[in-house]
Amino acid sequence: MLLGAPMLLVLGTALGLSNEPTLKGIGIAIVGLAAGLMILQLGRGPIDPLGPAAFITYSHILLFILRPAYGFFYQDNINLFTQTPFDSSTLWAQVIAATGYISLSIGIRLGSRKYLGSERAQPLLFEPTRDRAIILPLWLTVGLGFALYVVYIRQTGWGNYLTILKTGRTLESSQALESSSAYFYAGLSVATGALLLIFMLDLYRNNRLGATLALMLVLLCLVPSFASGSRSVFIPTLAALVIVFRSRFPRAFSFRRLLIWSPAVFIVLFIAPRVWRVGLAQGGSLSQSLADAFLPQNYLDGFLGGYDTAMLDSFSLQVQAQNSGMIGHQYGSTYLSLLVAIVPRTLWPSKPVTVDQVLNAYLFPATNSQGIGFSFGFYSEPFLNFGPLGVAVVCIIFGFALERLFTKATSSSDIVLRYSAIMASTYMFTLMRGSISFDSQRLLIAIIPALIAVWMGRRMFSTASRSHPIKIGGTR
User: Fold this and answer.
1) pLDDT tens digit string along 235-251?
2) Torsion angle of alpha carbons 114, 401, 99, 341, nearest 10°?
3) Whole-number Å distance between alpha carbons of 276 and 286
4) pTM (global) more than 0.70
């Protein structure tokens, strides 16, 4: 990859000299990619293809290179939201995105240890008494999550609940998530996060029955989001399962095999759900929507040509609005919304809102009033709060903190830290499409209850654990 970076730099520079704003923007994005890759790899070794830096890179390629390239060649070079040609605001958005990716790379490089990529991870160690002790609190967390979700279903009503599954994102579901029902709705994510850790523990302890039961329940938890075509949860969860299997059985789940199977899996799990969700929302039958979802012509146009990857389109509108003075800087208020997210809005009506809520209210008031929201991408939030300089500073801090966490977790012999690193990695694409203030809540809801259960279990039973650690092998 390091050898390919100079070639990307040449290609990006050539496109950057074009008089066409879209091609110039793509060239800038490619130059940013090349510079970021060189920063990531110099003195560090190869990038883990399933690590957070890799997922950030995949996201940059998809959202800021492939998406505008597809729009330029196959969609008459128009913005999906305004149906007007891409203009100078799109070019400026590309400059900001390139700056953001380079800054993330700098932060990741600063947070990594030298030659980390060539070091072997520490083998996992288990203390039988202690690690058996955390299983019960984790299962109690699973039960609590299921109980909360059942309350949500009862509040919604079985009829409305099934309707929501059939139509995907609806006004009813959006209103539920913005009300007190959101706390109950989150129960399924709480259960899923705990089950993933139970699965990982039992898989490494060679407890086939426990691992199989946990895996079946994880897949059951994914049914509602898969049926409705909402992929923000089940894609990271399935990616986490793949990484866990690959770490436990590296030969069976080699990276080469994953590359071979990834196109088919990507179509089935990422593109098709979007197509059938739109079909169902428009009143189509389930059978017809499923049939349309697997038509070849819908693969590229429904993905690269659709709203799933149109973050540059929406971000360019934000840039235009801020440059014209329509939207002012928020000075960190959207990040504050993450810290106070647990406080019900009924208790604090003026509680800060997330970046998506701010921008949708300004830029898409009609759809926003119907409970429909669009994402603007990771770089939109620091730009909204602090401007271009804020993008660089926030991305450096985020990259540094992320890499320090990932480095500590992957070099530790504690399986719980490995679990945290895997979950953080798999949610990177969701974060890069969205924002810290909103989409990181999905990750935190999934892992914090599980980590609290682990802490409680180890604290309560630490005095009873007297056995010596048992080495059972590495993860690579």
Assistant:
1) 888 888 888 888 888 77
2) 160
3) 8
4) yes
